[in-house]
Design a protein that fits this description.
Elements (H helix, E strand, L loop, with lengths): L1 E7 L10 H15 L6 E4 L3 E5 L5 H8 L5 E11 L2 H15 L5 E9 L8 H15 L3 E3 L6 E7 L3 E5 L3 E5 L8 E5 L5 H11 L3 E8 L6 H18 L3 E6 L1 H10 L5 H19 L5 E2 L12 H8 L6 E2 L7 H10 L3 H4 L21 H8 L4 H9 L3 E4 L13
Parallel strand pairs: 5-6, 5-7, 10-11, 10-13, 11-12, 13-14
Antiparallel strand pairs: 1-3, 1-4, 2-3, 4-8, 4-9, 7-8, 12-15
Helix pairs in contact: 3-4, 5-6, 7-8, 8-9
Length: 398
């Protein structure tokens, strides 16, 4: 029996004239993900099919479950598109996958080949009758069946399957351009990065550190967060920004309650320069409206004024519990709550301003040469190629 993994596109099918671009990118992403396995991948405008070796099935299913752009996927049995062969294959599917107990079932036929000898409704009746005649433990229930027998009839072949796995949805990574994501050691920014990837945005990650005020353990924490994102992102860099001197200058020359606002403005200035260097189109961060002082709308407006780039905030309207739920799902939560502070949590003033004044910011920024400091920072970046391999040695950078 010829089995394949059948992939459904979901949201990609809404793309009309651009659908081919999305499907080709998904095909490329799957091919990269499965590059070390013996597979053959075929695609058309509505489905993708992966031929595989039985011993690789579980590894392939795990990898498919980490790829954005897939609505659902199934282990399907492939057969010739004629009634007798479809009936025979239905028997094999049921015998291979069902235990010996009573079930209710429903047949759902999709007939993309309109030249097939009978229509979809007639197919449901014919295949349902065949199952009732040959499987005494199965009874029809069209409303709430235990099993759904899917039959997809296409021009050359037909596909029969029972179980359907839910995919991650979204768009294939790389279809919507590239951004740089600001990755701190907190809970929110890894979730924001994950959600940006889900919308088809390719990412490189940026981490601001201030050694010795931040620790090497904090850097290691961020590397491990990046590695958790790697399976969803594929090729990805972590750009480490040495922020110490500029951060110290901010706290020396600016009002304490404005320090976070000025710090964020400096970070966005650096991010804008990094986007040009790394050919990105925008910035992603983990800000959630109202969560802290720098995330009020007034603060965001003052901070944003240093750049004209799009700033994407995927968790902007999520509450903390919703963000934590996603963090647990993608396995970043336990890393994020490790007690190592980052640039955004050290030197936090007792009463940070929530409605900063832009002119006040501009006046304070005139008191030190931040532009020279930024150029020095950009000359001393550290860039790490992230890999999810748990045995990878990062000792030289920790």
């Amino acid at each position: 029996m010829n089995r394949v993994i059948l992939i459904k596109y979901g949201e990609l099918t809404t793309k009309k004239g651009n659908r081919k671009i999305f499907i080709n990118t998904l095909y490329s992403n799957i091919l990269k993900k499965l590059k070390n396995l013996n597979v053959n991948i075929f695609k058309d405008m509505s489905r993708m099919y992966i031929e595989y070796l039985d011993e690789d099935k579980e590894v392939i299913l795990k990898n498919i479950g980490e790829i954005f752009g897939i609505h659902a996927y199934s282990i399907a049995y492939k057969t010739e598109s004629n009634l007798d062969m479809i009936k025979k294959t239905i028997s094999e599917v049921l015998n291979d996958n069902l235990e010996e107990r009573n079930y209710t079932f429903k047949v759902e036929t999709k007939r993309s080949d309109k030249s097939f000898e009978i229509n979809s409704v007639e197919c449901n009746n014919v295949f349902g009758g065949y199952i009732l005649k040959n499987f005494s433990n199965l009874k029809v229930d069209v409303h709430n069946p235990d099993i759904l027998v899917h039959v997809e009839i296409r021009k050359d072949y037909s596909y029969i399957y029972l179980n359907e796995y839910k995919g991650l949805g979204g768009y294939p990574v790389g279809t919507l351009g590239k951004c740089l994501a600001m990755l701190s050691g907190g809970i929110d920014s890894p979730v924001a990065s994950y959600l940006a990837l889900k919308r088809g945005i390719k990412l490189d990650l940026v981490y601001f550190e201030a050694i010795p005020h931040t620790s090497l353990e904090a850097r290691g924490k961020v590397i491990n967060l990046a590695r958790k994102l790697y399976p969803y992102a594929g090729d990805m860099k972590l750009i480490i920004v040495p922020f110490t001197k500029l951060q110290e200058a901010i706290y020396k020359n600016c009002l304490e309650n404005y320090s976070i606002t000025i710090m964020r403005r400096m970070m966005f200035r650096i991010m804008e320069k990094l986007t040009k260097r790394f050919k990105a189109l925008g910035i992603v961060n983990g800000e959630s409206v109202g969560q802290v002082a720098s995330q009020t709308l007034t603060s965001m407006n003052v901070i944003n004024s240093v750049t004209n780039l799009p700033i994407l905030r995927p968790v902007a309207c999520f509450d903390k519990l919703e963000i934590i739920e996603i963090a647990k799902k993608i396995d970043t939560y336990d890393i994020s709550i490790l007690p190592y502070e980052d640039c955004c949590t050290i030197f936090v003033p007792k009463h940070p301003i929530i409605n900063p004044n832009l002119n006040t910011c501009l006046e304070m920024e005139k008191t030190f040469d931040y532009e020279a400091m930024i150029e020095d920072i950009l000359a001393n970046l550290q860039i790490i190629n992230i890999d999810s391999d748990k045995d990878l040695d990062y000792s030289d950078i920790l």
